[in-house]
Amino acid sequence: MRYLSTRGGITPIPFKDAVMMGLADDGGLLLPETIPTFTPEELESWRGSSYQDVAFAIISRFVDDIPAHDLRQLIERSYATFSHPGVTPVVKKDGVHILELFHGVTLAFKDVALQFLGNLFEYILAERNETMTILGATSGDTGSAAIHGVRGKKGITIFILHPEGKTSPVQALQMTSVLDANVHNIAVSGTFDDCQDMVKSLMGDLEFKKNYSLGAVNSINWARVLAQVVYYVYAWLKVAAPGQKVIFSVPTGNFGDIFAGYVAWQMGLPVEKLLLATNENNILTRCITSGDYSVGSVVQTLSPSMDIQVASNFERYLFYLFDRNPARVKEAFAQLKAEGRITFNSGETARMQQKFCSASVDREQTLQTIGNFLAETGYLLDPHTAVGVRAARELAAGDTPLICLSTAHPAKFDEAVIAATGKPVPVPESIAKLQGLPTRCDRLPADQQALREYIVRTMTAS
Hints:
Blueprint: E1 2-5, E2 13-14, H1 15-21, E3 30-32, H2 40-45, H3 51-59, H4 68-79, E4 90-93, E5 96-100, H5 110-128, E6 132-137, H6 141-150, E7 156-163, H7 169-176, E8 183-189, H8 192-203, H9 206-211, E9 214-216, H10 222-239, E10 246-251, H11 256-267, E11 271-278, H12 283-290, E12 292-294, H13 314-321, H14 326-339, E13 341-343, H15 346-355, E14 356-360, H16 363-377, H17 383-395, E15 402-406, H18 414-421, H19 429-432, E16 442-445, H20 448-461
Parallel strand pairs: 5-15, 6-7, 6-9, 7-8, 8-16, 10-11, 10-15, 11-14
Antiparallel strand pairs: 1-2, 1-3, 4-5, 12-13
Helix pairs in contact: 3-4, 3-10, 4-5, 5-6, 5-10, 6-7, 10-11, 16-17, 16-18
Keywords: Amino-acid biosynthesis, Lyase, Pyridoxal phosphate, Threonine biosynthesis
EC number: 4.2.3.1
Family: Belongs to the threonine synthase family.
């Protein structure tokens, strides 16, 4: 299996090189040359299997340069850290199947991919006797999950950027209370989009990237998406009858999580629709419903991990929407840079609507959904999951099983939950012990040159 760029500017490369490259050297995103498929019979043979066995069955189809025994060990080690034996269990509440993705070390869905990616990095670096510098941006959960995935790992230094004051207090503490020498937190005076732009700018400087062995943990790294494909298949096996189609509702900001669902669908998973749920930062909803992909200003909401305008992983889907035409992809992103929008023709919009439906959920609707769902079912939703549940109730009808991705534990967003329910949130021990810990964080303006100088200064001093 080899990997190519959405912008067509690299010679296809093997999986391990794709993991280490992160962002493609031509500025595009990496994808497999073909998406492997499974048959209905193969899918049924996995029913009753452990999460780890399903993960190996899926991931191994994309990886042919890591021995099977080693890949199994990487998967086993990655999910041994999860607090639930099922890793991503499914619970049914009021006709809705909640896929709980928050049983990892930082209580967010990003742990599923980043525990695996951290172990992958360590394995490849040891094999090659190399070091790397990880550079990432976060709107909240990616940063803490990435830090906990690589903290203390030999040969890895990590720099994580987050928008200052725009994550939840718990998200900030989960990052800044990690004092390992290889971890560097940076609070940026700006938005997540500013952080993401700074990272992509430096990753696109090939000389700097080579000199400092830059690697990516954001969902621009293909291995992140690949690891997330697994739980779509695992959830289907827990919920659906043989051959039965389902609807997945996915709270969405950067399009990585829902793109993993798209990949699972293309592999052969019976899916009726992917429901894309946004908060007030609704560029993706506007795009799906009317073809309007025009960048606005980032709105700070109750669901900060979705406070994004430019969704990086949307480029991967556009590669397929544009019939795998790199020239059309480059044209689209040149227009986005020049005009702040991408224009779609009516046929392209219609094709998007065949796969996706979408709804935007505002602050009042989010609070109402958290409160009502708790009253009706006794189950507490975090604000991101509430966006997904609310959108699903608006758009999903009929008897098709509905699976809503629960992307974070509600205790990470206690202010929103208390506002919705008037009740304190039960606090897991992993969050309670963060209070009062010493923290370390540096601050930078939203300027890529300032980031460049910071990295050089830090790496020179180490």
